[in-house]
């Protein structure tokens, strides 16, 4: 497939005797929202861990813009625009919503200790202003601006999930891996999330890979859906093709989706 920003080829991950992933290949193009679905234990989160660098795969490779990044650290990947959210929330609960987005931009400069702080104080202040202004912009886009001064640890789960998404956007991503972002969200929050993801892909050209158990949400948002089962790709195609696939219905969707 041409124009793929992210490509994973032949990814294999073993946990002792368990083959969590076995030769999984998948690519996502700029501006595309691709769904990744499958039953519990299918290997979705393990795949995200391999792509984001949290777990080195036993086999296969990960390419960003055609460049092999399999040996790169998670931080290196994040710096180069490959970001993710986690199934379990990872916000800084004792920071405000805004500060959660400001610290997510910290790698853009900083470091160097006290001497560097004194010498470069004006430029640091202007960087800090730029980060806060970017945080405000993203919070507005995500419908979170009114919550900007609230401590993240006090937010109900749906809002906290949206803050996690906003934090992944604080420094504009080129590839975004979303791990069950809609879990615990109300219908209105899911709508807001769908708007944010559509705009991110459509206007900013981000490649989005979405793991989500809410199948209706995935089918509505994604042009293409990949189905994992027992660590392998069971099917892929448009939502209609995937829904109609008998193997997918047997393994995951049942007869109601
Ligand atoms: N750290 C680990 N140690 C041992 N086995 C693991 C580990 N992490 C995952 N597994 C196993 O790997 C397989 C894939 O798990 P994974 O969490 O990636 O699936 P998933 O599709 O994300 O599931 P869910 O939808 O429940 O989040 C499962 O059999 C799981 O038990």
Query: Tally the helices: what do you get?
Result: 10
Helix content: 25-40%
CATH topology of the domain at 4-92 and 167-253: Rossmann fold
Spatial gap, N to C terminus: 28 Å
CATH class call of the domain at 4-92 and 167-253: Alpha Beta
* Dominant shape: globular
Mean pLDDT: 91
Superfamily at the CATH H level of the domain at 4-92 and 167-253?
A: P-loop containing nucleotide triphosphate hydrolases
Structural class: alpha/beta
Order of helices and strands: EEEHEEHEHHHHEHEHEEHH
- Indicate the CATH architecture of the domain at 4-92 and 167-253: 3-Layer(aba) Sandwich
The largest sheet has its strands arranged as: 6-7-8-3-9-10
List the ions, cofactors and other small molecules found in this model.
Answer: adenosine-5'-triphosphate
**Could you give the count of β-strands?**
10
- Given as residue ranges, the uncertain stretches (5+ residues, pLDDT < 50) are none
Approximate strand percentage: 15-25%
Q: Report the radius of gyration as a whole number of Å.
A: 19 Å
How is the main sheet built? 6 strands, mixed
InterPro entries: AAA+_ATPase, ABC_AA/LPS_Transport, ABC_transporter-like_ATP-bd, BCA_ABC_TP_C, P-loop_NTPase
Domain ABC transporter: 6-255
GO molecular function, one term: ATP binding
Organism: Streptomyces fildesensis
Helix and strand arrangement:
Layout: E1 4-15, E2 18-29, E3 33-37, H1 44-52, E4 59-64, E5 67-68, H2 74-79, E6 82-84, H3 97-103, H4 113-119, H5 121-141, H6 157-169, E7 175-179, H7 187-204, E8 207-211, H8 215-221, E9 224-229, E10 232-237, H9 239-244, H10 246-253
Parallel strand pairs: 3-8, 3-9, 6-7, 7-8
Antiparallel strand pairs: 1-2, 1-4, 4-5, 9-10
Helix pairs in contact: 3-5, 3-6
The structure holds adenosine-5'-triphosphate.
Pfam families: ABC_tran, BCA_ABC_TP_C
GO molecular function, one term: ATP binding
Protein name: ABC transporter ATP-binding protein
């Amino acid at each position: 497939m041409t124009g793929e920003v992210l490509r994973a080829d032949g990814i294999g991950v073993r946990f002792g005797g368990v083959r969590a992933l076995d030769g999984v290949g998948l690519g996502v193009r700029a501006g595309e929202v691709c769904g990744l679905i499958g039953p519990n234990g299918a290997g979705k989160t393990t795949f995200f861990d391999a792509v984001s660098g949290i777990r080195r795969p036993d086999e296969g490779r990960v390419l960003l813009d055609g460049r092999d990044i399999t040996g790169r650290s998670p931080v290196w990947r994040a710096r180069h625009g490959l970001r993710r959210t986690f199934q379990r929330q990872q916000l800084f609960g004792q920071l405000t919503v805004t500060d959660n987005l400001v610290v997510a931009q910290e790698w853009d400069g900083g470091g160097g200790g006290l001497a560097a702080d004194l010498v470069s104080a004006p430029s640091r202040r202007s960087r800090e202003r730029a980060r806060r202004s970017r945080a405000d912009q993203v919070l507005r886009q995500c419908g979170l601006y009114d919550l900007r001064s609230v401590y993240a640890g006090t937010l109900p789960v749906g809002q906290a999930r949206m803050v996690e998404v906003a934090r992944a956007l604080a420094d504009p991503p080129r590839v975004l891996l979303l791990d069950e972002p809609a879990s615990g969200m109300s219908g209105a929050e899911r709508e807001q999330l769908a708007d944010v993801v559509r705009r991110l892909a459509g206007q900013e050209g981000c490649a989005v890979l979405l793991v989500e158990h809410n199948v209706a949400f995935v089918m509505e948002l994604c042009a293409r859906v990949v189905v994992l089962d027992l660590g392998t790709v069971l099917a892929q195609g448009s939502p209609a093709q995937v829904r109609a696939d008998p193997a997918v219905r047997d393994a995951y969707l049942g007869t109601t989706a």
